[in-house]
TrEMBL record, chain A:
InterPro entries: BPD_transp_1_N, MetI-like, MetI-like_sf. CDD domains: TM_PBP2. Belongs to the binding-protein-dependent transport system permease family. Residues 95-304 form the ABC transmembrane type-1 domain. This is ABC transporter permease. It comes from the Bacteria. It is found in: Cell membrane. It comes from Falsiroseomonas selenitidurans. Keywords: Cell membrane, Membrane, Transmembrane, Transmembrane helix, Transport. The chain crosses the membrane at residues 9-30, 99-122, 134-157, 177-197, 235-261, 281-307. It is a multi-pass membrane protein.
Automatic annotation (TrEMBL), chain B:
The keyword Cell membrane does not apply. Residues 76-450 form the Solute-binding protein family domain. It comes from the Bacteria. It is found in: Periplasm. It comes from Falsiroseomonas selenitidurans. InterPro entries: SBP_5 (IPR039424), SBP_5_dom (IPR000914), TAT_signal (IPR006311). Gene3D superfamilies: Dipeptide-binding Protein, Domain 3 (3.10.105.10), Periplasmic binding protein-like II (3.40.190.10). Belongs to the bacterial solute-binding protein 5 family. This is ABC transporter substrate-binding protein.
Length: 313, 533
């Protein structure tokens, strides 16, 4: 097991290298000019050219790529073209809100979706099953920003229960922190809940047909024990896989959610950087996301062993 | 106790216990000494010389002070200076700084700081470049006096030092102004204005915080735009960046923010219905919409083809696409200068007045030799104003019988592509859309977009001798009548040569909670004089 983990961690290095090369090359050939954005609308072409030179954007591809890789190898992600702040500082400023949003969404989604899927499978064909499936279709169909606006309208404007926007760091208290995350987490989690609920239902339907479930029932085990201890554990592997895949979904959805609820997270940082062509920030954030995704995949692979003793590394 | 407080109290008991008793400080939004403001866009950098975006200027006006400041009559008034003397030949200007000026690091403002700041500002500013070209000497005479010797008279010098156009000539310490040239961003934000920038609290893309500078000594005159006494009535100004207008509207209605700089017109009726919110025109100088044609290449290298577009275009179409059905927000503009200002002129603007004449347009197209060349029309989709204008233009050109190649892109790409002088088929372009702040268009002083200097001109590279002669006359005009005559000449020549196509004049709103007072109309949000109950 330990050797497997080490191998997988080492395998992230070539993956990150390929991602780095791909991202840098893509940004190099993409149209757009940060110097023009910095110079402003009144700037002359000469001004733009001077700013481009001062930022080193007029240097050849290989020189720029080499310098960037050299900096990364020394642990330096570079400095934002626009803010003049280190990219690592900007990521550090933004990582807590995004992490908080994803964790709350994940907890919320799993704690709602899994029981929903289990109950829907247990009550297959009843109104409960149909209601869960209708919710799943709705969750898939309604865009995150629409859910966000509707939630903000009712819970913030009409009923004055929760704030419309913003983020309060955890260090300032649990409730202020959570208060700002409830609506965004529900909005972001709606698709995720729908996805997990559907997969849970489908997998549970298959497991509930197995002989050992019939045996458990014949032995007189209670329904809750059968569903959540026996059936769900055996249905866990595909559900965990979907939860893991869904983290990528969350990263994408966070961009929209953070904009709608004005949360200063990595999603907004990424979009802002792309619109301004702030290359060092884009490169730094994409590297971070890909690293996180590789680690999440590793964690999922390891989690399989907890639920299915037949899986060994 | 309102519902949210009740909910908070109920949940706090359980959650505080669950979290080990972590304390939750009071929200600053409840503090009457803190003003929470939603700016027009993200404060992505904070160097008013290096980054010339309006949002940077607006924040900078709190932190850095100016030697002069224009008032709401567009007249420069002394701000950091006590006064100036000018030699009889108009070539030697001697300025004296007023007493009590101090930087946020505690150091007094000295003449050498002013000299260094002006030197850093000049290369980035159109008026600054003109002065630099005729400058003989700029020196600090002593700690409070500096002298500027010119090779030829420059009557608009005070205006150059006090205008609202970017880049404004802000004064910073010599050690910063000399360490970073005009094309390198500063890393220390030390000014002598009424507010200090809290660098540690700055999260680009999310928030910026400004704290009252207790040692600032305001002038005794009442505040008027950049002039007069800049008295801060709040201790702290927090900028909250909100990319989504609907969120900003909800936050304003909910009292989570106090002032929203530029609500989109679609949401204004909603806010007008809220009795806690006031809505008014933000800036009477408004904006001028425009699209620019590439004078270097076919088909717009033909003056008649450009005139054909002017003859056919309907400014009403453009303005309604930008501001919607609110007729209070726009007016037709048969010219290039800001309506309602002292030197405004419509001279030579007949082609933009009255019913649109498609027959005349088609005739001009034929006379101009248009031969179905594709018009590469660049339209930035991420800017609502450019997108709205681009859609109208594409439709207009098609109705004229032109071959339109509509390039939907973003503003960053537009910024890069518009700088390319190549032929359209080799990566160049035919036209792009933008707009100009009305404050930049009150006269030719800083109006780069109107210049007709050919290859040295702004994107599109128009060449117009008439415009350039008029600009020269304006800068040397001895009185208002002469200035007006020069403006007439510029406007007529710019229309005739179609330096660019003005799509109309439009205004925008600003909105604030009614417990906020003292918000002034102007080209930028002025925070002095703004109080909160």
């Amino acid at each position: 097991m330990f050797a497997y983990v080490v191998r997988r961690v080492l395998a992230t290095i070539p993956v990150m290298a390929i991602v780095a090369l791909f991202v840098f090359s893509l940004l190099y050939i993409a149209p757009g000019d940060p110097a023009a954005v910095i110079a402003g609308d009144q700037a002359t072409p000469d001004d733009v050219e001077r700013i481009r030179a001062s930022l080193g954007l007029d240097r050849p591809y290989l020189v720029r790529f080499g310098a960037w890789v050299w900096d990364i190898m020394r642990g330096d992600l570079g400095v934002s073209i626009f803010t003049n702040l280190p990219v690592s500082t900007m990521i550090r400023q933004r990582i807590e809100p995004t992490l908080s949003l994803m964790v709350v969404t994940l907890i919320l989604a799993v704690s709602i979706a899994v029981p929903m899927g289990v109950v829907a499978a247990w009550r297959q064909g009843t109104w409960i099953d149909r209601a869960v499936m209708a919710f799943a279709v709705l969750g898939f169909s309604v865009p995150v920003f629409v859910v966000g606006y509707v939630l903000a309208y009712f819970f913030a404007l009409e009923w004055d229960l929760l704030p419309v926007q913003g983020y309060t760091p955890f260090a300032r208290g649990f409730w202020p922190w959570l208060e700002n995350l409830i609506l965004p987490a529900i909005a972001l989690g709606s698709v995720y809940i729908a996805l997990i609920a559907r997969i849970t239902r489908a997998t549970m339907l298959e497991v509930l047909q197995q002989d050992y479930i019939r045996t458990a029932r014949a032995k007189g085990l209670n329904q809750g024990g059968i569903l959540f201890l026996h059936a769900l554990k055996n249905a866990a592997v595909p559900i965990i896989t979907v939860i893991g895949i869904g983290i990528a979904l969350l990263i994408g959805g966070a961009v929209v959610t953070e904009s709608v609820f004005a949360i200063p997270g990595l999603g907004r940082l990424t979009v802002d950087a792309i619109l301004r062509r702030d290359y060092p920030v884009i490169q730094g954030v994409v590297l971070l996301f890909s690293f996180v995704y590789v680690l999440v995949n590793l964690a999922i692979d390891l989690a399989y062993t907890l639920f299915d003793p037949r899986i060994r590394y | 106790m309102d519902r949210r407080s009740l909910l908070k109290a109920g949940l706090a008991a359980g959650t505080v216990a669950a979290s080990g008793g972590i304390a939750a400080p009071a929200f600053s939004q409840g503090n009457a000494r803190t003003l929470r403001f939603v700016p027009q866009s993200n404060l992505a950098n904070f160097d008013p010389i290096w980054g010339t975006q309006y949002v940077v200027r607006n924040a900078s006006a709190m932190v850095w002070d100016t030697l002069y400041g224009v008032n709401d009559q567009l007249v420069p008034q002394p701000q950091m200076v006590e006064g100036e003397t000018v030699s009889a030949d108009g070539l030697t200007w001697t300025f004296k700084l007023r007493a009590g000026l101090r930087f946020h690091d505690g150091e007094p403002v000295r003449a050498k700081d002013v000299v260094a700041s002006i030197t850093r500002w000049m290369p980035r500013d159109p008026m600054g470049q003109m002065v630099k070209a005729i400058q003989k000497e700029l020196v600090a005479v002593d700690d409070t006096t500096f002298r500027w010797v010119l090779g030829s008279p420059y009557p608009k010098l005070k205006y150059a030092l006090g205008k609202t156009n970017t880049p404004i000539c802000f004064i910073m310490p010599e050690r910063i102004a000399t360490k970073f040239d005009s094309f390198t961003q500063i890393t220390e934000y030390v000014g002598s204005g009424p507010m200090k920038f809290v660098k540690e609290a700055w999260v680009p893309g999310a928030s910026a915080v400004f704290q009252k500078f207790d040692q600032y000594v305001p002038r005794s005159e009442p505040a008027s735009w950049l002039a007069g006494g800049k008295r801060m009535l709040v201790d702290r100004v927090e900028w909250v960046v909100m990319p989504d207008p609907a969120t900003a509207a909800a936050a304003l209605q909910n009292g989570e923010v106090d002032w929203w700089e530029n609500p989109i017109s679609d949401l204004v009726p909603l806010m007008r219905r809220n009795r806690n919110i006031a809505v008014d025109i933000a800036d009477p100088l408004g904006n001028i919409g425009s699209f620019r044609m590439n004078h270097l290449h076919k088909p717009f290298n033909s003056k008649k083809v450009r005139q054909a577009v002017l003859a056919a275009m309907s400014q009403e179409d453009y303005m309604r696409a930008i501001v919607g059905t609110d007729d209070a927000l726009w007016k037709a503009l048969p010219g290039f200068f800001t309506p309602g200002t002292p030197l405004y002129t419509e001279a030579g603007g007949d082609i933009l007045k009255g019913d649109r004449n498609m027959d005349r347009a088609k005739r001009l197209l034929a006379e101009g030799g248009y031969n179905n060349e594709p018009v590469i029309c660049i339209v930035a989709q991420d800017q609502p104003i450019t997108k709205a204008q681009g859609d109208i233009t594409a439709d207009l050109l098609k109705r004229m019988g032109m071959n339109v190649d509509f390039v939907a892109t973003d503003w960053g790409t537009t910024g890069q592509r518009r700088a390319m002088k190549n032929a359209p088929e080799s990566g160049g372009w035919g036209m792009f859309h933008t707009w100009h702040a009305g404050a930049d268009c009150v006269n030719p002083a800083a109006y780069n977009a109107l210049r007709g200097t050919g290859q040295q001109a702004w994107f599109g590279w128009p060449e117009s001798k008439g415009v350039e002669d008029g600009v020269t006359e304006w800068f040397s005009a001895p009185n208002v009548a002469a200035e007006k005559a020069a403006m007439d000449k510029i406007n007529a020549a710019a229309i005739d040569d179609v330096v660019y196509a003005p799509t109309g004049f439009f205004l925008s709103y600003t909105a604030w909670r009614r417990n906020v007072s003292g918000i002034a109309k102007g080209p930028l949000p002025f925070f002095w004089g703004v109080g909160k109950a």
